[in-house]
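Reopening this ticket.

The earlier resolution said the output was attached, but the attachment link was broken on my side. Pasting everything inline this time so it's all in one place.
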Amino acid sequence: MMINVKGKKVKKRSLVTIVVVVFFIISAAIYYESLFKPVDNNPTEKEVVIPKGASTLEIAKILRNKDLIKSEWFFIFRSKFYDDGDQMKAGKYLLSSNMTTDEIIEKLKEGKVVLDTVKFTIPEGFTVSEIADRLQQMGIVNKSDFMNEAQNGVFNYEFLKDIPKDRPDRLEGYLFPDTYIIKKRGKCS
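Inline output:
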C-alpha cells in the first residue's frame, strides 16, 4: 500500500491559497462597502471652502483634512464614475460628517453654497435704540456707530429728505418693522 504524500501537500497548499484569496476578497469587499458610509453618525457640520478652479484631487484633500471623507482616492473614483458633465462648484459649503461621499459630491455639483448673510427681525414698536441693541447683540453693528449714522447720516430716500438733522432720534418711526436678510461684511466691533 502506497501513501500519496505529495498529492496531500498539493491539496493542502491549494486549500490554503483559496482560503487566503477568499479572505482578501471578503476583506476588500467589506472595506469598499465601508467607504460608502459616512465618516461618523454625528451630524457635525463643518464649513468647507472649495477654491475656484480646484481639481478633484485638491477637493478630496480638503475634505479628507476636514474628516468628511474616509478616502481621497474613493472620492475621486466616485466623482469621476458619476461624472455627468457637471463639475463641482467653488464656494463655501456646510457639510456634515454624517453625509456619504455621494451626498457630498452631489451637494458640490449642485453648488448649494452657504450664503454669507444674516437674517434678523425688527419687531413693530421697537425704538431706534432697541433696534441698535438687537443688531449689536447679533454682532451686526456697533450700537454707537448705528446711532450716530441714524442721527447724522445722509439718506437718499424721498420720504426722509424733509426730516431735520437736529430732530432728536431723527429716524424714530421711520425704520420699518420687518424681517431683513443682509450680506455679512466682516467682523463687527
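Reporter confirms the inline version is readable. Residues 117-183 form one domain. The longest strand covers residues 45-50.
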